[in-house]
């Protein structure tokens, strides 16, 4: 059985950085909190818990000491609360997310109504929005929603880092008709599209596709959906223990990819599991 592993499978730059910072902080502190799980990988969050990293949902649940800010970042209100409490901060906000926050702040400061292309409820979007401290803000989940924006003098357009460029381009086109001046900052990071393009390519060349990553990870679930649309024999798994022999009947090529929050050791265990079944 041939195994096709996507080059981009697993951690993106921001998740790799945040994970490294979290493990280093766990080593150097006697107990530390993270505001929300560091990444959407239950297996990795468990490893960090074993090293003393306690996940909390709100700043007021953090006892004295230090807090890790995950790669999605936090809202300006949460950051103020953290600073008011004089907590030590290990800031693992991805620099690309930080850049989107800074652009939201800049646009609102300079008098633009901010249009943010993204998922309203996502913590990253909530964080970015909070930095647009004055003027109107609009969150647009799909291009058609931009039609509802009322005409105004200035619009500033940014995006959640994981959005598709095509949606961003369509929203930009609609916004052009809605204002006299449109300022655009492309804050999309290409980690998502690179993974999705490779997943498509692998699905076309495989008889079975395994997509590894947390069931709570939106980007992994999306990869699984993209693969399943091309190759119905697609399985989304979190660990090697979930592999089933019967999936491999008549399979010559197995494609493997993984979400941006899937640790390398989980990918390696799945490859080993596939090799055992193959033998
Ligand atoms: S997907 Fe991009 S923006 Fe998000 S954490 Fe990874 S590198 Fe950073």
TrEMBL record:
| Keyword NAD attached | no
What positions does the entry give for isopentenyl diphosphate binding? 40, 72, 122, 217, 219, 261
Give the residues the record marks as binding [4Fe-4S] cluster: 12, 94, 189
* Pfam families, alphabetized: LYTB
Q: In which pathway does it act?
A: Isoprenoid biosynthesis; dimethylallyl diphosphate biosynthesis; dimethylallyl diphosphate from (2E)-4-hydroxy-3-methylbutenyl diphosphate: step 1/1; Isoprenoid biosynthesis; isopentenyl diphosphate biosynthesis via DXP pathway; isopentenyl diphosphate from 1-deoxy-D-xylulose 5-phosphate: step 6/6
- Give the keywords, sorted: 4Fe-4S, Iron, Iron-sulfur, Isoprene biosynthesis, Metal-binding, Oxidoreductase
Q: What is this protein's record name?
A: 4-hydroxy-3-methylbut-2-enyl diphosphate reductase
Origin species, per record, is Geoalkalibacter ferrihydriticus DSM 17813
């Amino acid at each position: 059985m041939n195994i096709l592993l996507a080059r981009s499978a697993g951690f993106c730059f921001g998740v790799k950085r945040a994970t490294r910072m979290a493990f280093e902080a766990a080593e150097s502190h006697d107990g530390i909190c993270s505001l929300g799980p560091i990444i959407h990988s239950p297996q990795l969050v468990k490893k960090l818990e074993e090293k003393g990293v306690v996940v909390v949902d709100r700043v007021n649940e953090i006892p004295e000491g230090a807090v890790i800010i995950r790669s999605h970042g936090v809202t300006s209100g949460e950051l103020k609360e953290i600073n008011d409490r004089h907590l030590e901060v290990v800031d693992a906000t991805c620099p690309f997310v930080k850049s989107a926050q800074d652009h939201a702040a800049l646009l609102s400061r300079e008098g633009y109504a901010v249009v943010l292309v993204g998922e309203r409820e996502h913590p990253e979007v909530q964080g970015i929005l909070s930095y647009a401290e004055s003027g109107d803000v609009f969150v647009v989940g799909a291009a058609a929603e931009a039609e509802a924006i009322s005409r105004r003098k200035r619009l500033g357009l940014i995006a959640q880092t994981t959005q598709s460029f095509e949606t961003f381009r369509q929203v930009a086109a609609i916004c052009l008709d809605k204002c006299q001046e449109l300022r655009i900052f492309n804050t999309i990071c290409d980690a998502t599209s690179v993974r999705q393009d490779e997943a498509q390519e692998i699905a076309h060349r495989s008889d079975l596709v395994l997509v590894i990553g947390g069931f709570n990870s939106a980007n992994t679930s999306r990869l699984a959906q993209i693969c399943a649309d091309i190759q119905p024999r697609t399985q989304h798994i979190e660990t090697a223990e979930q592999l089933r022999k019967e999936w491999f009947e008549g399979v010559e090529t197995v494609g493997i990819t993984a979400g941006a929050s899937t640790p390398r050791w989980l990918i390696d265990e799945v490859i080993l599991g596939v090799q055992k079944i193959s033998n």
